[in-house]
Amino acid sequence: MPILAIDTATLVSSVALATVDNLLAEITLQTKKTHSELLMPHIAKLMDMAQVAKADLKGVAVSIGPGSFTGLRIGLSTAKTLAYALQIPVVGVPTLAAMAYGCPVPGVILAPMLDAQKGNVYQALFEWHQGELKEIQPAIVTEVTAALESLSQQERPVVVMGESAVMYRDKIEQIGKNLILAAPHVVIQRASSVAGLGYKLIKQGVRHDVMGLEPLYIRRSEAEVLWECRHGVDK
Q1: Which pLDDT value is given to residue 203?
Q2: Rounded to whole angstroms, how far apart are CA atoms 202 and 26?
Q3: Which end of the chain has a smaller Cβ tally under 10 Å, C or N?
């Protein structure tokens, strides 16, 4: 019962095929090429390598954000198109939760961070408790230095992951204390983690409407803000 998982929330393009207890294949690539160039060829290559036919797919799990507005739209539109065409379930998986799901370490706080531009980050906090991933703080937009300083006051070790962890590596190392930069294979998004959490949601009966599923943006796009400023729209 394989499902296809897609993550295009950042510059990382990642697709995976997985069953409930086995990762069949994964392609994860960080490049300057756009997701519109890479995503469908990667899906075709992935399924060919794993010898999985479209008719074999039982669902699609897709990372829904927060993250890059364009990347999220490409990933979500692809997932919804496949789910509609193949008449299989689609489930939207929060990007930050999927990242934490890929690091099942008890006793620490998991702090995935993604770039929200202008020195800000998307951040959420998680922990593993009795084999289950628990959300401590929902996704917010916050200034990166303030976020790291706040994390450094936690009583437990904090594993910082995501593109912003790499971008602000020097800040993390400068603050030190209880902050730990995640290892390279954990620090970026992986579609295998989207698949794992997606499978869990599907087993719990979660299904999202193909037409109604939308990205989890958290904040408005720069284009929306500029349009409102130019047209004098009240907030």
Answers
A1: 87
A2: 20
A3: C
Q: pLDDT tens digits for 88-99?
A: 999 999 999 999
Minimal CA–CA distance to 73: which of 32, 47, 39, 116?
39
Which residues have C-beta within 8 Å of that of residue 146, sequence separation ≥ 6? Answer: none
218: left (phi over 0), alpha (psi -120 to 50) or beta: left
Range(s) of the domain holding residue 49? 3-95+189-218
Q: Are 59 and 88 in contact (CB under 8 A)?
A: yes
The pair of three-digit structure tokens given for residue 204, joined into one six-digit string = 């719990």
Residue 62, classed as helix, strand or coil, is: strand
Same domain, 90 and 202: yes
Task: Report residue 31's pLDDT band, with 50, 70 and 90 as the boundaries.
Answer: confident
Per the prediction, the chain carries an average pLDDT of 92
Helix (H, G, I), strand (E, B) or coil at 198: helix
Is there a domain that residue 228 lies in? Answer: no
Mind listing the pLDDT tens digit for each residue in 166-224? 999 999 999 999 999 999 999 999 999 999 999 999 888 898 999 999 999 997 544 44
pLDDT, mean of residues 55-83: 96
